[in-house]
Amino acid sequence: MASSSPLHVVVFPWLAFGHMIPFLELSKQLARRGHAVTFVSTPRNAARLGAVPPELSPRLRVVTLELPEVDGLPAGAESTADVPPEKVGLLKKAFDGLAAPFAGLVAERGSAGDVGGVEASAGFSRKPDWIVLDFAQSWVLPIAEEHQIACAMLLIFPVAVFVFLGPEHENKAHPRVTAEDFMSPPPWIPFPSALSYRRRHEAEWIAAAFRPNASGVSDLGRFWEAAHHPACRLIAHRSCPEAEPRMFPLMADLFAMPVVPAGLLLPDATDSGEPFSDVLKWLDEQPSRSVVYVALGSEAPVTVGHVRELARGLELSGARFLWALRPPPSSGATDHAGELLPDGFERRVSGRGVVITGWVPQVRVLGHGATGAFLTHCGWGSTLEGLFRFGLPLVMLPFVVDQGLIARAVAARGAGVEVDREDDDDGSFTGEDVAAAVRRVMAAEEIARNAMELRKVVGDGARQEQYIDELVECLQRYR
C-alpha cells in the first residue's frame, strides 16, 4: 500500500504565464494539503507572480534560477510575454541552459542553500519525491533518473490537443507533413470525431510545432522525449473528463501510462481586482447579462488590422461591450488606443462601449451580473474561466496553438459561435463577421443555456477539489 506521508514536490513550469499560473495554483493546492512544494522559475517571473500567501509559506517556497544570455534574445526577457513570437525559440534555447543549475538544485536535495528550522520540518531538506515538469524541458528526466526521483508532466492544454498530436510511434506510422494533413482527424482516434483544424493558418502553425525551431529542437520532440522517458510515471492535464468526454482513456491508451485530471486549476476568484474600480462601476450601471466582455489574451498574434475590424464589428453589432485591449507590439502603442481604433469610434460607441488598455480585473468582470458573453481567442485558460467557471457563452476568434481545436469543441457542444473568416489561408476577418457572431450569441437563449449547463457539470467546486485529492493519491501510488 502506498504511503500517505507528506511529499516533497518540485514544480517547474515553462516560461509562459499561461503555464506558470496554473502550475503555481497546483503548488498552492498541494501545500494546502500539507505537502512541501518547491516552485522553480526565474527571478523576474517569480517577482511578477507575486508573494506566496503567508499561510502557505511554511510549505511553499519559490526558488529562482538565473536565465542564461542567448544571442538575439532581448535583455531581461524571461517569459514569452517579453518577446515577439519569432523569438520564442530563442527563449527555449535559454531555458535549456537551466539544465545544469537545475541539476545542482536537485543534487542539493531540493535545497537552494542551508535549510533549517521551519523549512526542514516542512520537508524541504530531503530529496524530492516528485518533479512536476512542463512539455518543454525533457532534459529534466535524465537528471531525475540519476537521483531516482519520479516525474510527472502537467500539461496545461486540453487532453484533446495531445490526442490530436499523438505519440511518436503513431506519427511515424501515419506521417503528417503539410498543413492539409492537420485538417482532418488523425487515424488513431477510434470513434467518429471532428477533432481537426478548420483553417489553413491554424494548421500551418501546428505543423510548424513538428519542426525544429531556433532552439534546435521541435516542440513535439521535447514532449515526446519527456513522455516516453522511463522516469516519467504519469501525465496530469489541466482538465477533467466532464470537460472532455472520452479523451482521458484514449490519451492513456496512446501513451501507455496513467493520464489523470488535475482539474481546472483556476486561481481563487474572491480576491482579484480593486473593489471600486471604474470598470466595475460602469458594469454596475448596465442591464443584467447585456455586456460582451472582449479580451484576446496576452500573447495572441493580433495585428492593428485585426483591432480595427474588431472595433468595426463591435460598433456594427449594437451590443454593449467592455474591451480589454492590448495594443499589438507592432503598433508601437502602449497605454492609449486612440490611434489604433477607427476615427470617431470611441465617440460613436460612447455610453454602450468602453475600451480599456490598462489593467482589467478579468475574473470579476467575467463573474459580474451584467456580463452576458465573452469574446475570446479561445486559449484554454480563458475558456476554462469564462465558460466553465462562469457559464458565459463564447464569441470565438481563435488564432494559433490549440485555439482552433477548442473553438470547434465548444461550438460542437452548442456553447459558442466562431467568427467567420474571409480568408482561411491567413485568418483575416471583417467587422461584419464579428457583428454577426456577437448578435447571434447575445440573442440565442439556447446557447446561453448550454453554457450554463456546462458550468454546472464542469465547474462544480467540490468535484474540482476531489481531482486534486485523486492526483495526490496517484503521486503517493506511483512514486
From TrEMBL:
The entry's keywords: Glycosyltransferase, Transferase
Q: Which InterPro entries match?
A: UDP-glycosyltransf_plant (IPR050481), UDP_glucos_trans (IPR002213), UDP_glycos_trans_CS (IPR035595)
The enzyme's E.C. designation: 2.4.1.-
Q: Which PROSITE patterns match?
A: UDPGT
Top-rank taxon, per record: Eukaryota
> What molecular functions are annotated in GO for this chain?
glycosyltransferase activity
Q: What sort of enzyme, by top EC class, is this? A: transferase
PANTHER family referenced in this protein's UniProt entry, alphabetically: GLYCOSYLTRANSFERASE, OS07G0201500 PROTEIN
The entry sums up its family as follows: Belongs to the UDP-glycosyltransferase family.
What this protein is called in its record is Glycosyltransferase
Q: Whose protein is this, by species?
A: Urochloa decumbens
